[in-house]
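[Q] Does anyone have a clean structure-token version of this?
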Amino acid sequence: MNTSGVEDNARAIWIAANTHPNREQVAEHHLRNQGYEPYMPVMRKQIRHARQVRDVLRPLFPGYLFVHLSPAHRRWRPILSTVGIRSVVCSGDVPCVVPETFIDDLKQREQDGVIVRSASSRQIGETVRIVQGAFDGLAGKIIGLSENDRLIVLLDFLNRPVRVKIPGDLLSVA
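[A] Here you go.
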């Protein structure tokens, strides 16, 4: 993020706003009602509770959303009094500008309004070997996917099955 461009009223910019905990949707709604164009990228996540599994949409960046400021609607201070908003990400007294290419890249990863994970070359059921870290050299089987592009691997450690969440780049084909 940079601070150049807030004074330049010739082009539209994106800024980041910090929200109160779990109030991203409320803030987005109120910003829209005020005439701003908010953008809150979301991901689909599986929630397991009481033997039930359901898919829910969660913010890609919990506690943050982006606000588009057009040259005609450049006033950002009213955002600070919006319900659900805690602050605007600033450098000094000037909001930090989020590069438009960053927002465009996020929007390109969307399918039906939801950010999709990058394609993983690993498959559930595949046998892999850990190539780095505390479990270096151990082999296991991929049994699931976790957030942040981590894989859940079932290892046989000390004659017991152990579930480990590990980044995919620390694994090789066994």
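[Q] Thanks! Anything notable?
[A] Residues 1 and 98 are 5 Å apart (CA to CA).
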